[in-house]
């Protein structure tokens, strides 16, 4: 029998509410599921001790650590060691400029693609993806140290060409070419780091903005950018100290050089090696965050949602 129109005058409030719930449009239910908030944890493992991090402050804390790692490796470390890399792998200034710009090229190409793909996705997982790519790119940039052999300096203080790559009067062209081919390895590493860095400052900042009250959005965003600036300063300080360590750390006792000697090559690769575990350790906490932090649905429903 076909049901007629429900007259609210003859139906109790409880039954009327149930009827209205049944008439809720499917797309509205899907909308609620899309913006559902969950606990902090991994799959079914959601201990109560982790729920203290399930808020905007917890997310911004780990976001700040990721921003420090990204800016330290990309901007701080590389800017300090670029002259050392030129000396070690016989690169010219033009090649160094291409390596430095490869990060920006990657970010520019993906600055529209990644936000489009991750707009409705799980943004904390995108942050985990960023941490993975940053660590991978950092590791690739350190690979030339392990595959190019020991650095052997010349006999004269003005001679920075490895002795193993020299004849009596000139350097072997083939050996120099082999060293300069590592130029492409550095480009690959910085391109991969550019993929990771793009997500941080597009999806990460967007996630912070929609997860906090409107009046606090600029404060949390400012904290994230402040961590980026601190990361650059941290990278400059640490890499400057690392360059006082001889490039082949296990051969230091056999080297009669000082950092003031023009033939000296410092440990340029150590900073990249530090960046690998520093970035990959952040994958774990980002994978533990839910798709939406508690309070986000309240902010979407009401103009001003106070904590």
From TrEMBL:
Record field: transmembrane: 59-82, 94-114, 126-146, 182-203, 223-247, 267-289
Question: Which keywords label this protein?
Answer: Disulfide bond, Membrane, Transmembrane, Transmembrane helix
GO CC, sorted alphabetically, is:
basolateral plasma membrane
What superkingdom does the record give? Eukaryota
Q: Where in the cell is it found?
A: Membrane
Bilayer topology: Multi-pass membrane protein
Major facilitator superfamily (MFS) profile domain sequence ranges:
56-307
A Pfam family per the record: OATP
Q: Which GO-annotated molecular functions does the record name?
A: sodium-independent organic anion transmembrane transporter activity
Its GO biological process annotations read: sodium-independent organic anion transport
Instruction: State the PANTHER family in the record.
Output: ORGANIC ANION TRANSPORTER, SOLUTE CARRIER ORGANIC ANION TRANSPORTER FAMILY MEMBER
| Protein's recorded name | Solute carrier organic anion transporter family member 4C1-like
């Amino acid at each position: 029998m076909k049901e007629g129109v429900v007259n609210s005058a003859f139906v109790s409030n409880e039954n009327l509410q149930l009827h209205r719930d049944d008439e809720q449009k499917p797309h509205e239910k899907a909308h609620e599921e899309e913006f559902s908030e969950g606990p902090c944890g991994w799959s079914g493992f959601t201990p109560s001790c982790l729920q203290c991090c399930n808020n905007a402050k917890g997310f911004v804390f780990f976001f700040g650590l990721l921003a420090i790692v990204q800016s330290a490796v990309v901007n701080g470390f590389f800017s300090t060691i670029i002259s050392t890399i030129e000396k070690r792998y016989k690169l010219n200034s033009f090649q160094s400029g291409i390596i430095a710009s490869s990060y920006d090229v990657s970010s520019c190409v993906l600055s529209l693609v990644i936000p489009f793909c991750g707009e409705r996705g799980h943004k904390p997982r995108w942050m985990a993806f960023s941490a993975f790519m940053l660590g991978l790119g950092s590791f690739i940039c350190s690979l030339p140290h392990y595959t190019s052999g020991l650095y052997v300096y010349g006999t004269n203080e003005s001679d920075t060409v490895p002795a193993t790559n020299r004849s009596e009067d000139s350097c072997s062209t083939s050996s120099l070419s082999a060293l300069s081919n590592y130029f492409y390895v550095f480009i690959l590493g910085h391109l991969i780091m550019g993929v990771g860095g793009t997500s941080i400052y597009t999806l990460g900042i967007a996630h912070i903005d929609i997860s906090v009250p409107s009046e606090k959005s600029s404060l949390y965003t400012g904290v994230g950018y402040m961590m980026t600036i601190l990361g650059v300063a941290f990278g400059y300080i640490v890499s400057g100290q690392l360059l006082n360590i001889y490039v082949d750390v296990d051969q230091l006792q056999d080297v009669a050089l000082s950092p003031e000697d023009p033939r000296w090559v410092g440990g340029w690769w150590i900073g990249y090696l530090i960046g690998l575990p520093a970035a990959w350790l952040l994958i774990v906490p980002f994978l533990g965050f839910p798709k939406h932090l508690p309070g986000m649905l309240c902010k979407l429903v009401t103009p001003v949602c106070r904590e």
